[in-house]
Amino acid sequence: MSAPAVDGIIRPGTVFHDDRGHVAQLHGIGVQRVGDLWYAWGEDKAAGSTFTAVACYTSPDLAAWRYEGNALTVADGDLASDRVIERPKVLQRPDGAWVMLLHVDTADYSYARVGYAIAEHPAGPYRYLHSERPMGNVSRDIGVYQEDGVGYLLSEDRDNGLQIYRLRPDYLGVESIVATLRQQDRPEFGYESPTMVRHGDTYYLFGSDLTGWSMNENKYATATDLAGPWTPWRNVAPEGTRTFESQVSVVVPVDGGHVYIGDRWNPDDLFRSPAVVLPLRIADGTAELVWHDGWQVDELFR
Predict the structure, then answer these.
(1) Element (H, E) at 180
(2) Is the separation of the CB atoms in 214 and 225 below 8 Å?
(3) Measured between alpha carbons, how far is 179 from 163 in angstroms, rounded to an integer?
């Protein structure tokens, strides 16, 4: 087993290790900046595809990770050990509370709901509250976005497309649909594992095609208003790389730049699925993922 990163170098396509030397369970990662640290939450894949825990880590540089404990653990009902809990994403409400949103499902992916949990501290522990099908729609892979104190849920709705929902003021439910996006060549579908950032006056929305554990050419679309119109989808990485063999999980704003974090899923060993962490060039309505064998956040963004 390799040692935790101590040199600040990010090596795409390798597993994260934490301060204990363990494989960091940051699959389906969600990230938020809190002071000088990034907090990150991920799926613990010790049990494979079913629920073990949502683990929390902190990092000063997105390379070295400190284990802060489990933010959410197995319980009855939605959090039972035979359930699927994916894509933990966290927002801080204007009142200071921390809200975790989750893809909550059964093993056959027929439940298809978004779950909500709340905590006083970003590391938790989080108290699970409830789940819903937002506006009555199925919800699988999710992302979140926040602007001017307003929270948004990004949700893959297999029946209608990729949904952008406005959250209630307490962030514990959905109150309206802002936009629904579909694929150009398969308009009956949207994209999954969505994430979104704003750069200047433009929103950049990223997603992955519906190919299960297999990698594909991840896409992005842009708009100057969340309600649209949105541009046609384009590849975020060079054609044929299958997004450098990864599926987007989150795009993290970093001191004027952006970092892409994706999963390189290994269905035979989900616990050790590597992460692909790369700089993402965003400017003038375009986004481009750039490969580096090894790089540092300080080199590119500070």
Answers:
(1) strand 174-181
(2) no
(3) 6
Burial class (CB in 10 A: 0-12, 13-18, 19+), 207: buried
Q: Counting beta carbons within 10 angstroms of the beta carbon of residue 97, is it exposed (0 to 12), middle (13 to 18) or buried (19 or more)?
A: middle
pLDDT tens sequence across 217-268: 999 999 999 999 999 999 999 999 999 999 999 999 998 899 999 999 999 9
Q: Which of 99, 156, 175 is nearest to 165 (CA)?
A: 175
How many of the other CB atoms lie within 10 Å of CB of 191?
26
Mean pLDDT of the chain: 96
* Cβ contact 97:119 at 8 Å: yes
Residue 104 · residue 113 · CB < 8 Å = yes
Whole-number Å distance between alpha carbons of 257 and 280: 7
The pLDDT, as a whole number, for residue 1 is: 40
Task: Please answer whether residues 4 and 10 qualify as being in contact, where contact means their C-beta atoms are separated by less than 8 angstroms.
Answer: no
Q: What is the pTM of this model?
A: 0.96
300 — phi, psi (to 5°)? -105, -25
Backbone angles phi, psi at 97, to 5 degrees: -70, 155
* C-alpha–C-alpha distance, residues 242 and 232, integer Å: 19
Domains of the chain: residue spans and CATH: 27-301 (2.115.10.20)
Beta carbons within 8 Å of 6's beta carbon, 6+ residues apart: 64
Structure tokens at 3: 């040692």
Compute and round to an integer the Cα radius of gyration of the chain: 18
What single-letter amino acid sits at 151? G
Which spans in the chain are helix H?
242-245, 297-301
Query: CB-based contacts of 118: which residues, under 8 Å, 6+ apart?
Result: 97, 98, 99, 100, 126, 127, 129, 172
Residues 273-299 have pLDDT tens digits of 999 999 999 999 999 999 999 999 988
